[in-house]
Amino acid sequence: MSDFKPGLEGVVAFETQIAEPDREGGALRYRGVDIEDLVGQVSFGHVWGLLVDNSFTPGLPPAEPYPIPVRSGDIRVDVQSALAMLAPAKGLRPLLDISDEQARDDLARASVMTLSFVAQSARGTSLPAIPQERMDQSSNIVERFMIRWRGDPDPRHVKAVDAYWTSAAEHGMNASTFTARVIASTGADVAAALSGAVGAMSGPLHGGAPARVLHMVEEVERLGDATRSVKTELDKGERLMGFGHRVYRAEDPRARVLRRTAKELSAPRYEVAVALEEAALTELHARRPDRVLATNVEYWAAVVLDFAEVPAHMFTAMFTCARTAGWSAHILEQKATGRLIRPSARYVGPKARPVKEVPGAEGVLGEI
Length: 368
What we know:
- This protein is mostly helical.
- A hairpin with a 2-residue loop joins strand 2 and strand 3.
- The longest helix has 24 residues.
- The chain is globular, with a radius of gyration of 23 Å.
- The mean pLDDT is 92.
C-alpha cells in the first residue's frame, strides 16, 4: 500500500479536462480559458456551458416553474432536501442507466433548479411569489435568479452576482466536488450527487469564509484604522480570513477579478476593503516572511456580495449556486470513466482478540 496521506492531500485521484488552477502563476483557467477573460464578458449561464459542454451554447436553460417542497428556514437544508426529492418528483434515473446526453440534460435541469430553490428559500413565505411571466422577460440566468428572489433587482447587483458566480464556478478537486464525484461513481442520479455536494458545502471549512471577512471590514469601518484593526486581531492570535490559500503560491486570480469588479461597480466598501487588504498583507508579511500569504477569493467575494446586498447568511448558498457548474462537469467526467471510487484504508485498530475481552462483554454474552 502506498504511503498514507491524511485527508488525501496531494494524492492524484483523477485526470480532468475541466479546470486548471495555476499554483505558481496565480491563474485559473476553465477548459483553457482564463477567468479574467470571462468575468464581465460571458454570463454565468454560458460559463456553465463552457465547463460542462466545452461550448458556451446552449448553456443553462431557464428553470421550470416548480415550488420548493421544503421550507425549514435554513436555505442549505431547503436546497439539499429539495434536490434529493427531484429524482422521484421528476423521474430522474440513475447515471448508470442513462446516456451521457441524458445525464447532461438532467444536470442542466437540476443545476438551474438549484438556483431556483435558493431564490425561493431566500425569498421566504412572507412575500408573494414572483409571477412566471415576470421572470420570462429575461433570458439571463443570473437576472432570472435575482428576479425570483427580489422582484426587480438593481442591474449592477446582477452584474456583481454574475461576476462572483463565474469566478467561483469551478476550482478543481475540493471537498464538495470530490463528494459529487464519489456519489456519481456509484451510478446514482444527478440530483443525489448535487445534493451530496451541497451537504459537503455546509461545513465552515468549505464555503463559509466570506461571511467572516465581512466582519473584519465592518470592524475597520468602526475603528477607522485598518492597521490597528489588523494588529489587534493578530496579537489576539486570531486568523485573518481571506488571506492565504492551500493551492496558490501567488495571488488568488479570483480575488483579482473580484477586486476589479468591486472597483468597476463603485462598491461603497471598496476603499475600506483596499485599506484593510494592504494593512493585512503588510503585517502578515512582516510576521510570517517565510510564508506566501496573498489575498484569496473569499476576501473580495465578501465585498462584491455585500455590494449586491446579499446578506451574510446567504454567502454559502451563493457559492452553492456558482459551483453547480463545476459539480455538473465533474459528475459527467466521472460518469465517462465508468469506475467506482473506492479508496483503501489502513487498519490501526485492536489486534485479533476473543469476544470476552471486549469491554462490557460480561454483561451481554449469552443474552440471546
